[in-house]
Each structure stands twice: as C-alpha cells, then as structure tokens.
Amino acid sequence: MMTMKFKIISKDSNSKARTGIIKLPRGIINTPIFMPVGTLGTVRGIHQSELINDIKSEIILANTYHLYLRPKLEVIKQAKGLHNFINYQKPILTDSGGYQVYSLSENRKINEEGVRFQSHIDGAMHFFTPENIIDIQRDIGSDIIMAFDECTPYPCDYNYVKKSMGLTHRWLQRCKDRFISTKEKYGYKQTLLPIVQGGTYKDLRKISAETIASHDFPGNAIGGLSVGEPHEEMYEMTDIVTDILPKEKPRYLMGVGTPSNLLENISLGIDMFDCVMPTRNARNGLLYTLEGTINIKNKKWEKDFSPIDTNGTTHVDNNYSKAYLRHLMMSKEILGKQIASIHNLGFYLNLMQIARKKINEGTFYKWKEKMVEKLDERM
User: Fold this and answer.
1) What is the enclosing helix (H) or strand (E) of 242?
2) What is the rounded CA–CA span in Å between residue 47 and residue 66?
3) What is the DSSP string of 344-357?
4) Secondary structure E strands in the chain
5) Which position among 139, 143, 271, 274 bears the catalytic label?
6) How many C-beta neighbours within 10 Å does residue 217 have?
7) Angstrom distances, CA of residue 214 to CA of 119, 209, 310
8) CA torsion through residues 60, 61, 66, 68, sign
9) Neighbours of 377 (CB within 10 A)
C-alpha cells in the first residue's frame, strides 16, 4: 500500500532515543530529524538552495489548508506538483490543515461529515472532509501526507476531547479508504500517516495510541501537543504514547518545539519534529546557540564584532558579526531576518546531527542532561 521504509540504526541504553533512516522515493532522511516549516511552499525568507546546501534540510513541511487557498490547486496541478512549483526535489510532508482550521478560520462548524469554515483570506466558505483532504494532498504531490484530524485547544474539557478523539479516529478510517482507492499523480509513491490525539488525558492518549497502532501505518504522528500545555505534561503524554506505538516505525511529534524540547522528546523515542519556532523567533531577533539563546536586539551586542556563532554550520555564522546583525534588526532590514533564520535553522539541523552522533556513540543521555540546561540559558 505504501512505500515509506524505516530502519533503526542504533538505540540509546539509558533512554528511548534511537537513530534511524527513513527511505522515501525522493530521498533518505536520517533520524532524529527536524523539518523546517515552509507553510506556503516557502520557508520564510530562505532560498531552496540555502535549505539544501547550507541548512542541510532533508525534508520540509508545507500546509494543505494554506496551499489550497493560495495559490490554489489548479496552479499546483499545472506545475505538476508542489516539488516542481517551488523547485525543491527532496521529500516534502504536508500537514492536513486540521490545526489551521482550528486556529485561523472564522465560523467553523464541525460535524461527522467534515468541517465548514470561512477562509481567513477573503471570507469565502469552504468544506473540508477526510476524502477531499486526501484528494488535495494527492494534487499537491507531497511525499508524506497527514490524515485529517481535529485539534483540540488547551485547556479542554475531558468529554469534548473524548468526543473529538472519536471523530479523529473515524475520519482516519475514511482517509485510509480514500487513500487506498486513489493513486499518486506525478509518478512518486506517497505515504499516509495517522495522528494520535487525546489532549492531556492519560487514558485518552492510551486509547488513541492503541487505535492508531492497530491500523498498521508505516509511521505514526502525535498531535495536539505544544498548544499551551506545560512542558512536563507534553513529555508525560509523549512518554505514554511512545510506549504504545510500534517501535519499528518512526514517530513524528507535530509542532514541537524549543531545542531543549527536541532533546527531551528524542529521549522519549521521537524521530521527527517540525516547528515554526526557529524562523519565527529569528525574525524577532532570538538566536539559538549551543551556549544558550541570544536576544540580538539587546544593547550588549551593539559593539560586539565577533562572529554570530563560531560553532555555527551555515555561511552566515562566521561571515557576519553580532553587531552587524543587531544593526540590521534595529533598522528593520529584511537581510537581518534572513541571516537570523538561516542561522537558527542551521542550528536546529546541526543539533539533530549532534544528537544522532551521541546516540550512535552511546553517550546521548549524559550529553542531553547537560545540554537542556545550557540551551535554555539567556546569554
């Protein structure tokens, strides 16, 4: 039915961390991996060549809801898929749009059939169903496509989360049926992944994880976290779910997170991450480094002519000074946001590479315990 293949390379003896390789028709992904978010077919302010050559991304994420509304499917279909449209030939994962319907649209009405919602762009009414979400992602041509789910807010009433979870499970069966009965459009096999829900309720997370595992997809995602709950609750839910999901398949934690969130969740057995945080925070002047975080707008960097990050792996890190980047940010120059975004994404991908190395060497847990304290420090 599907072509994603996953092989575990090594396991950490002191945690649930592991390294692996995901094989997709468009390329190989080394796990644990971070996926830069390119919602509208662009990682904001970053050239595709920079993503590949500098940041060393192995897979990026785009969004079904946004692409459906703009540039619209007829444009993407005429371009023969999103990869050709944006000129990025590595793997792309598309989120189903369930979260955006929850967070962006006005007047949304959810029922068994699907979600009726109003576009945040022009106010036009649209209707998403599990079936047309699969069809849309077939048209986009992404390598990994996500099932349509309902994302509940935090905090949320137990009964509502339970009802919502049941709906997500029924929608999954409809997504699966539609996926099996349709074909890829551009010559590359696609993989459908399901999403575990259940809010921050242990019993519901267990039920959802068991239900999702029983479908036997080639990988599994965990949704509905990183929506405002305390980090400890996120870790608790992840821990419960990774104990249930099959170990021989990759686990994708959606929408997470800070560098220390990533390391803690790798320790709990997560293989894939995505988050807007590195780019969104970069545009506001927050830089991540192995020594801690820097607010480049602070006056203390005004006359600091040292490189942005001597441990950095991208071309911007040693080519520009902190003082120059601060000047660009304070002057609201676009280049400042671009430099900071390249730095942060390069940092995230490099952090994943270091984590993989430490897992392979058997030193991950000790290193992780030290790193999470450092990463959260303000410099």
Assistant:
1) helix 231-244
2) 19
3) HHHHHHHHHHHHHH
4) 5-11, 18-24, 27-31, 33-35, 60-63, 92-95, 106-110, 115-118, 125-128, 144-146, 191-193, 195-196, 220-222, 251-253, 272-274, 286-289, 292-295
5) 274
6) 22
7) 35, 9, 47
8) positive
9) 10
Over its length of 379 residues, how does the chain's per-residue pLDDT go in tens digits? 458 999 999 999 999 999 999 999 999 999 999 999 999 999 999 999 999 999 999 999 999 999 999 999 999 999 999 999 999 999 999 999 888 877 876 688 999 999 999 998 999 999 999 999 999 999 999 999 999 999 888 999 999 999 999 999 999 999 999 999 999 999 999 999 999 999 999 999 999 999 999 999 999 999 999 999 999 999 999 999 999 999 999 999 999 999 999 999 999 999 999 999 999 999 999 999 999 999 999 999 999 999 999 999 999 999 999 999 999 999 999 999 999 999 999 999 999 999 999 999 999 999 999 999 999 999 9
The distance from CA 224 to its chain's CA centroid, rounded to whole angstroms, is: 12
Say if domain 17-276 classifies as CATH 3.40.640.10: no
Strands 286-289 and 251-253: unpaired
**Amino acid sitting at position 6:** F
Contacts with 208 (C-beta within 8 Å, 6 or more apart), sequence order: 165, 168, 169, 196, 197, 198, 241
β-strand pairing of 115-118 with 27-31: unpaired
Q: With b meaning 16 or more CB within 10 Å and e meaning fewer, what string describes 262-277?
A: bbbbbbbbbbbbbbeb
Q: Is 376 a catalytic residue?
A: no
Tokens of 91: 């793997």
Q: Which of 95, 139, 149, 317 is catalytic?
A: 95
Whether 274 is catalytic is yes
The residue count for the chain: 379
Domain residue ranges in the chain: 17-276, 283-375
Residue 185 has φ and ψ, to the nearest 5°, of -105, -20
In the block, tokens 């992602």 appear at 137
Nearest C-alpha neighbor of 43 from the set 270, 337, 263: 337
Rounded distance, CA 258 to CA 241, Å?
Answer: 20
